[in-house]
Amino acid sequence: MTGSVAILGVGMHPWGKWGRNFVEYGVRAARDALEDAAVPWPEIQFVAGANTVRCGYPGYVSAATFSQALGWNGARIVSCYAACASGSQALDTARMQILSGQADVALVVGADTTPKGFLAPVKGDRPDDPDWLRFHLFGATNPAYFAMHARRRLELYGTTEEDIAAVRVKNGQNGLHNPNARYRKAFTKEEVLASPMVCDPLRLFEICATSDGGAALVISSMDYARHRGLQPVTIEAISTITPTFPSTRLELPDIATDSAAALAMPAMNFKPAVIQAAYEEAAIGPEDISLAEVYDLSTAMELDWYEALQLCPEGDGQLLLREGATQIGGRIPVNASGGLSCFGEAVPAQALAQVCELTWQLRGQAGQRQVANATYGITANEGLFGHGSAVIVKQGGIV
Amino acid sequence: MAEKIIKAAREGWFTLDRHAPGLLGSQCEECETFYFPPHHHFCRNPACQSETFLQIELSRRGRIWSYTDARYPPPPPFIAPDPYKVCVLAAVELEREKLIVLGQMTASTRLDELKIGKVVELCLETLYSDDKHDYMMWKWQPLQGPAV
Could you tell me how many CB contacts below 8 A there are between chain A and chain B? Predict the structure, then answer.
């Protein structure tokens, strides 16, 4: 089932390390999205929540938690968990309720409260859980995986340490103008390169922190939006595909990859495949995209996404960066919001925050970080255990 | 002081042969897909319905696919030595099995002696100890002799 759905409202609770209950961030974001949409909460027929696994039982039943906090209104609900892609899956589930005709208008919410330091596994001995074992047996933190991917760029693609530092500089500039970003500070390349090495070749300022935050969207059928006389930003595609066997790139939290001994590797790696599925659903290509919000869990990973988005050939991401194409004012700005380097990741809220940013950009409401003449935006996101997502959003009122 | 008992940090995944330790994997009897960690139930090749596997030892040598280090102590459940010593990690590609296996490099390995494509060999080192046991773990070490 395909078709457009309307984004009527978006809202975010600013990212930070506030140390409060995640429900508070989610409800703040939801109320702002409802106000932005001018839809009263009792009219919402479906609520999709993106779960958090770090905040106890309420986090596992997030849609119920947020619904109760907003005041039970009898809506149908679903609570989704898909690691970093949780927000996109919640959004897609709500979209399908609308496209199927089950609901006219839906609310999607994700929020998190995170502990300090490295993201560590949930407590308790679990010797059959690869996520527990990779910490226990190898001390393999998330940045260690990002660093191994970065190392391959450096040795095989000719990306330099200066290149990956320049990603942080670009995103720092963008984040300066984002009131929802946690880190609003400009860095020089020298400052980035002087920050402590965490997992060689990645330095402290090149690795995404973990944050508290919340994001929400109100979406509706196109008919519902038209009856209100709106020409809203629309969602044209959401890709939530899984990898294809054999998956031969070591990804979080793998201890080993699949074997390609019996079956040849798929034609496309997972990241480009996630994006390609979104392009196909929206029936557009990379040449149609005006801006992208990508998951820069590390600075080097942002360059991986340039290639997965087919903005340049595999291995050339740093060339696009060097020519300034991906800064605001360039040919294809990436992470105009400041990206994860300015936000820090609030897992269930992050993929939704990416869509909030595209919505503001496509409405022309992004202030000093506004990308001119944007018509299509895309998000790109990858989480552990084979979750990826991409959302394509289109400017309102264009055919 | 009584001698400590040697135990695998994860039993059933590798042998404790001091001279030539091996990773214990499996291979589908029908499609011949390799697995590590060992896999016993349903083949994950989507084109294969097999439920039977051979238990095998994986190649003991492979080439570095990528590597990094951990400059700060990883959080529990990693048991970090005190004082902390930086450990080097490598993902190693096994040619016959066409898969990549993660491992720490031996304690004496320096990051700057590694390169993607370098040949390494499996060995054992103590990962952590308690009062009675030394818990052993597979590690990769740069190959001293010629590559095979």
Answer: 136
